[in-house]
Design brief:
CATH architecture of the largest domain: 3-Layer(aba) Sandwich
CATH class of the largest domain: Alpha Beta
Number of helices: 8
Distance between the termini: 58 Å
Shape: globular
Helix content: 25-40%
CATH superfamily of the largest domain: Vaccinia Virus protein VP39
Strand content: 25-35%
Order of helices and strands: EHHEHEHEEHEHEEEHEHEE
Structural class: alpha/beta
Number of domains: 2
Strand order of the largest sheet: 4-3-2-5-6-12-11
Length: about 260
Amino acid sequence: MNSNIESNAYSSFAAVYDTFMDNVPYEEWGAYLHGFLEEYNIEDGLVLDLGCGTGTMTEFLAALGYDMIGVDSSGDMLELALEKKEKSGHDILYLQQDMREFELYGTVRAIFSICDSLNYITEPEDLKQVFYWVNNYLDLDGVFIFDFNTEYKYREILGNTTIAENREECSFIWDNYYYNEERINEYELSLFIKDEELSLGNGDIYRKYQETHFQRGYTLKEMTQLVKSSGMKFFAAYDAFTREAPSENSERIYVIAGKGDF
């Protein structure tokens, strides 16, 4: 295998993100999220997908009749989201913004941030700022739904492990390093993506890309305090994809918050 080496942090992974996420049961995750929206009487209207990535969940909710807005800081991710929008014909507004200082044109009925997007906010004060803006743009009876990977998951499951996957058109090596004191998980990601143009008549030629990502492990107690400090109310928390209370071994937790009384 030939390879050309490039370093293009936080952008090259976008090109193959959906390929490597094809084993994620998005329809089940979407149904789980939709169940919460219905439970809190959000059956239509404007909904914001905060950290929307390539727009898979944004499209899922749009197909259910919600007026969707997607916010992400990655232009490369949003390019793929726009391609999906063009194919589906859904009227989705995408905005390239940092979630720590995102701006909308008005309030929305619900905001959700899933697939551990908030773990990328590694400073609690920055996460408090995200929650402040969420509170600012929620309707008075609006609801905020988010998930996060727990400290337990990084410490006991992901930390200091290597995950690799080989596909015909792309491969990756994903090295994890967990720093216990800082509660930061460092991802060293090496991608090998087939270059279709260079491969013509030359055998398979792959380009190597390298990225470094950082996520922070939070506890439910911390998240609850940050929600309340932003002016919102904490409604409920669940072990992901269940209606069971979180435990000390929960790897992902869903939190429901908002302004009203439920």
